[in-house]
Structures are given as structure tokens and as C-alpha cells.
Amino acid sequence: MVPPAVQFENVGIRYGMGPEVLRDLSFSIPPNSFQFLTGPSGAGKTTLLRLILLSIKPTRGLISVFGKDVSRISNDELTDVRRKMGVVFQEFRLLDHLTTYENVSLPLRVQGKDEASYRNEVVELLHWVGLGDRMHVLPPVLSGGEKQRAAIARALIVRPAMLLADEPTGNVDPSLARRLLRLFVELNRQGTSIVIATHDLGLMDLVDARRLVLGDGYLHIDG
Ligand SMILES: Nc1ncnc2c1ncn2[C@@H]1O[C@H](COP(=O)(O)OP(=O)(O)OP(=O)(O)O)[C@@H](O)[C@H]1O
User: Fold this and answer.
1) Residue of 11, 38, 47 to mutate, ligand 1, most atoms within 8 A of C-beta
2) Predicted ipTM?
3) For ligand 1, is residue 174 a contact (CB within 6 Å)?
4) Are 38 and 159 contacting, i.e. CB atoms less than 8 angstroms apart?
5) Distance between CA 187 and CA 169 in Å, rounded?
6) What is the pTM of this model?
7) Protein residue with least CA distance to atom 16, ligand 1
């Protein structure tokens, strides 16, 4: 049986000596599932995504990712787990000396793939996210929304087992937001588990998906 992409059991986290930001979180993200993560500003959405990404540790409880208990994970396993995750966070981390096309292709280049094997796919994806005419420019001349779309394309190009996206449509107009959402839905159809953190109720209404709702440190699940 395929394990859940993510499993939390009684997880809590605090920053330093502060109060618990998240408390008693127990839930799972099934393989091939689509969910929104929502809740008011400061509710802990980014914190929850960072826990799943293993960039911060819980102060209590158990987290497993792709069936691995993260408290016992080796460095090699950690690298392997991270490779399976596509991540779009609010800081886009594009490399300023590479063009948009080169930034988006970079994960495939790092995997040792030959450019001829991926060029068309990268170009097609760049057109889909509305960057067809921005392919050959460097990130410093891109707008915030264009950088965000480049970061989305870079996360999707490797067809990750799980996509974690923090407000991925925060900087784009509503019609482009719907287009990006269609891209996430298509990726999900091809087998990727999707977690999208958003405040945008209109966006969530467009997809019949589970909602993980954070509030007062607790999580409840709608749908
Ligand atoms: N590095 C940190 N050190 C101390 N406190 C932090 C840190 N990061 C987040 N917090 C606190 O944890 C709480 C949750 O923050 P988080 O960024 O996870 O919320 P969020 O739901 O993503 O918010 P937003 O919707 O505004 O992005 C907030 O009270 C925040 O101040």
C-alpha cells in the first residue's frame, strides 16, 4: 500500500519560548490528493508548510513524509524526500544571473538531463504560465507576479510527488490565477499531491477539494 504523502500525529510547535503556534495537529495528506490550506493571517499556514518541508522541527508529536518518520531520517533520505517535493514559497529564490528559461530548466539540468530532452516542455510550460515572451530575460527585470510564475514553473517542471505552494496566486490577476489553478489540477490528475495555502475564497470555490483550516492553533478539515 502507498503510504500517505504526509502524516501528522499530535504535532505541536512553538518558536523559541513563545506560545504554541500549532497544537495537537493530527491529519494526513493522501497520495494524489488536492487540498487547500487556509486560515487567517498569522494562523500558521507557512509554519505548517515548513514542517512538511522538514525545514523546521516540531516541538512535539510525530511527522512522517512519504512513509518516513522525519525524526529518524538520514541525510540521504532527507535529500531524497526533498527531491520529491515541489515548493513555491513567498521568496522565489530565482538565480539572478540565469534567464527565466534557464531558471525553470535548472532542476532538470541538475538531474543531468540533456537540454534537447526537455527544451520543448520547458517552453510549453513557460507559455502556459504566461511567460512566453519573458523567457530570455533575467529575473531582476521581471515583475513580482512574473517571478512568482517562474517559481511555479520551476517547481512543476520535475513533476514532483507533492507540491507545496504558499499563496501561489497572490500576485496575479484573477484570470491568470484561474489558469494557474488549472495547471495545479492537471498536475494532480497526473498523480501529484497538492497543498495550496491561500486566503482566496473565490479561488477555493473553483475546485471541489478538501480544506485544511487553521485557527487558534488548531486544524479542522472541511470536505
Ligand atoms: N521565525 C519565527 N519566529 C517567531 N515567530 C514566528 C516565526 N515565524 C512565524 N512566527 C509566528 O508564528 C505564527 C504563525 O505564522 P505563519 O507565518 O506560519 O502564519 P501564516 O498563516 O502563514 O500567516 P500569513 O497568512 O500572514 O502568511 C505567527 O504568530 C508568527 O508571528
Assistant:
1) 47
2) 0.96
3) no
4) no
5) 16
6) 0.92
7) 44
Q: Quote the ligand 1 centre to 45 CA distance (angstroms).
A: 8
| 21 CB within 6 A, ligand 1 | yes
Domain boundaries, the chain: 95-159
Alpha carbon distances (Å) from 64 to 32, 69, 81, 189, 212: 16, 4, 11, 24, 18
- Distance (Å, rounded) from C-alpha 197 to C-alpha 195? 7
In short, whether 219's Cβ falls inside 6 Å of ligand 1 is no
Atom of ligand 1 lying closest to residue 48 CA: 18
Q: DSSP letter for 181, please.
A: H
Written as tens digits, the pLDDT of the chain (223 aa) is 889 999 999 999 999 999 999 999 999 999 999 999 999 999 999 999 999 999 999 999 999 999 999 999 999 999 899 989 999 988 888 999 999 999 999 999 999 999 999 999 999 999 989 999 999 999 999 998 899 999 999 999 999 999 999 999 888 888 889 988 988 999 999 999 999 999 898 899 999 999 999 999 999 998 7
